[in-house]
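Reposting from the mailing list since nobody answered there.

I have sequence plus structure tokens for a pair of proteins and want to know whether others read the tokens the same way I do. The first protein:
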Amino acid sequence: MSQAFFPTGASYYPPHHDPAQWASDVANMAQAGMTCIRSAELLASWDYIEKERGRPDWSWLDALFDAAQRHGVRVLLGTGSPSPPIWLLDHYPDVQILDREGRPFPTSTVWGWACRNHPGYRAEVERFVGLLLDRYAGHPALWAWQIDNEPGYPFVNRRGEEHARIFDYNPHTEALFRQWLQQKYQSLDALNVAWRWDCTHHQYADWAQLRAPRSLPQEWGVVTAWLDWRTFLNENMAAFVRWQHELIKRRDTRHPTMTNIFAFSGREVEMALDPWLMARQCDAIGYDLYPGIKRRLHLEPEYISLFLDMGRSTALHAGTQFWLPELESGPISGWALGPDYTTRPADITRYNLEALGHGAKAILYQGYREWPCIPIHWGALADFEGNATPRYAAAQQVNQMLAQHAALFRAAQPPRAQVGIFYDTRNAMLLHGMGALDLLQRCVRGAYKTLWRAGYGVEFVDSGALQRGGLSYKVMLLPAALLIDEATGAALVRFVEGGGTLIGFAKCAWVDGRGWSWARQPGAQLEALFGATADEIERDDASIELDESLQSKIQNPRPKIKGYWHRQPL
């Protein structure tokens, strides 16, 4: 992915603006030093281009490409798969994803309503991506391809529901799950043992009897079945992205591919989004950063660094590049009660410097110009009429620096960290299913924040990276690492034997890879490694009074700290 420029730019969707201003908007982007425009991935995409099947209207996208070429700007082009045209439902009435109650997800709302395993949908995606390749793969303004957009199941709660709905129970997805189970277990006898559960111990006599689990573990659903189901969905979602990557690479090997995700939102398990797996599907992995949502910038001062370190870590362990295809560029979120946060010019500068310091190799704002049909508060560098805001000037200043030192920023990498934090998807799936994902998030944040304040560089590690070995960290932390399987435990033993220091937290290695309790805890060989066995576990929700020696080590100490405490006599 060698190139003579540092990719910096913004998302821009011409159909939302006056056609007479398209050219001037692109000119103003170029004037600000932007080298890239992102478009057609979602907000004006396949659904807008192909109103009638087989009769695409490329006029606005052609105009964007031509204007970009005139001004020396490149285009990051979306494949359109998250936003299929509504006629898809006419041709394939059973194409919608289904929740665990069998309810189809509605159209005309958040993206991802079509079942990615429906053969009709996949055929139409392949056809449309082929049309995009026919028209734009050879265009001199094309820079890269964005596959899908934040691929995963819908993450927005329906009104009156505490959590986002659990997907996807479309028959096409369930059929593939049964195939996945057959490949994993080989025999029904093995599956019957693995899916053992105190409450309902079904004995399956035919693979056709298997249904994807409808109950979470906290609802007394089978833990192993839940982990199998979510693991399959993660792999299935990543395979969908990889499938599009391969469709593109068969015909276009010149331009890189990227898909965009996010981290630490609390939604990843529901979405079937495994960041470690997703990072290995394309030429680059993108992360979408919005520090102002829920006022995270003020409530969690370490949030930006935590988020960027997670993105960099997944790219690092996948051997790919780390991009920011969506960066907050104006007052953000909140609907009628918003915005959650009013983004200032100083924030634009800070976000960019943080991203560069964490190794991002492309930075694009979301978006360049505000669009009036989304009154959620999703500010931009230019206002509704296309006039530059003070944030535009801040972006221009950053871009001037990037242009002057493009070679440096393209090549520079942050120094490798000496501290690793274990953050594994299967552990997150377990805790989500048990209603304790927030515990994991808070434990990880607490561990990270302590190191961040002390000035330590941090990288995140999953079980796959541990098992592959070759890690050079001096210290590894295991916050809320309740699920540690035998292979990961063996990798941790090797890490310590190689000179590393391992720090376990409460209930470390509580369950194995099936979600079953280890008979002796910590399990997975960690009992011998730590030289200690937990006799019992006691929980205390009360405030803990700190002695003076501890208070002297804590910034702004309080005599008592309220927390969620586990006491494990050893």
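The second protein, same order (residues first, tokens after):
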Amino acid sequence: MLGARLNTIHNLRYYIRLMHDMRAAIEAGRFASFAADFYAMRRAGASTL
């Protein structure tokens, strides 16, 4: 039960941070480069933003 709860907290924090960073990139007018960097990190196997 604890493992499921910790995993949920981890996943929520990941998505909260991702949305925060996406909004900041949109506001700064650099969403395209944010998206390119994000997908490059995902392809490389990076698990953090």
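Reply #1 (J.P.):
I read it the same way you do. The mean pLDDT is 93.
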